[in-house]
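Tokens in:
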């Protein structure tokens, strides 16, 4: 396992440390039939170049700054490893179907207009763009499961573990992790491949997920595990993924496609 320091560790008080010593956390493990879920890696959250958060939000109000691009740089080798191991890759895009029912817009209090899906902001950043064999799924709410067919697809592929990367840590990633855990999947959140606008939100969400719901690891841990599966010949998830991929490869799935 990586010896990197988790984002929450420097923020713990002495009392927090003592409490955690009384509550050892058991790892759920990564399983043998994983799928990688890339959550909402769109220009609206990442901007079109690596820049400071306060600079980015002038042009991209939902941008996440340098942290988004640091995550992208770590996602690239993870995606490559998944493809080499024939692990199914599912991208999601956050796209509000009807803006008047969009909870994020109501919380901000702004007067957003109905999205134009051809706009750059809704597209997945080119640096980690989906390949033809990948699945792209549109969603309207935080969890990747809410109002989507993803659960059915995971069952069809025989998946036992979902590996989550993307954004935001305290929003869609956390909601998805909790939902997937509730459906009895092993869930792995890759710490250096997720990000948030607020450092505190990022660290607190990771701590909460690690304590209560899922494993929080680093990309080198996941790549090492996948390399082991590849050497062991564990390709059953990939075989099932090809069956689903025959129907959905390279296309955006959802009522807005």
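Residues out:
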């Amino acid at each position: 396992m990586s010896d990197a320091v988790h984002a929450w560790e420097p923020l713990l008080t002495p009392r927090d440390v003592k409490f955690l010593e009384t509550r050892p956390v058991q790892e759920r493990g990564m399983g043998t039939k994983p799928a990688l879920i890339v959550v909402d890696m769109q220009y609206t959250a990442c901007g079109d170049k690596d820049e400071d958060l306060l600079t980015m939000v002038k042009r991209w109000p939902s941008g996440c700054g340098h942290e988004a691009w640091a995550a992208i740089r770590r996602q690239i080798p993870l995606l490559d490893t998944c493809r080499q191991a024939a692990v199914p890759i599912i991208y999601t895009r956050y796209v509000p179907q009807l803006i008047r029912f969009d909870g994020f817009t109501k919380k901000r209090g702004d007067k957003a207009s109905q999205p134009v899906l051809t706009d750059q902001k809704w597209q997945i950043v080119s640096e980690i763009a989906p390949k033809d064999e990948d699945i792209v799924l549109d969603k309207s709410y935080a969890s990747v499961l809410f109002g989507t067919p993803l659960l059915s697809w995971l069952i069809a592929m025989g998946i036992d573990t979902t590996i989550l990367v993307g954004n935001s840590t305290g929003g869609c990633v956390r909601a998805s992790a909790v939902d997937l855990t509730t459906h009895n999947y092993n869930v792995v959140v890759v710490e250096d491949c997720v990000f948030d606008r607020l450092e505190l939100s990022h660290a607190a969400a990771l701590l909460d997920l690690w304590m209560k719901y899922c494993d929080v690891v680093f990309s080198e841990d996941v790549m090492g595990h996948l390399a082991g599966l590849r050497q062991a010949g564990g390709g059953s998830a990939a075989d099932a993924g090809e069956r689903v991929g025959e129907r959905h490869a390279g296309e955006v799935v959802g009522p807005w496609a």
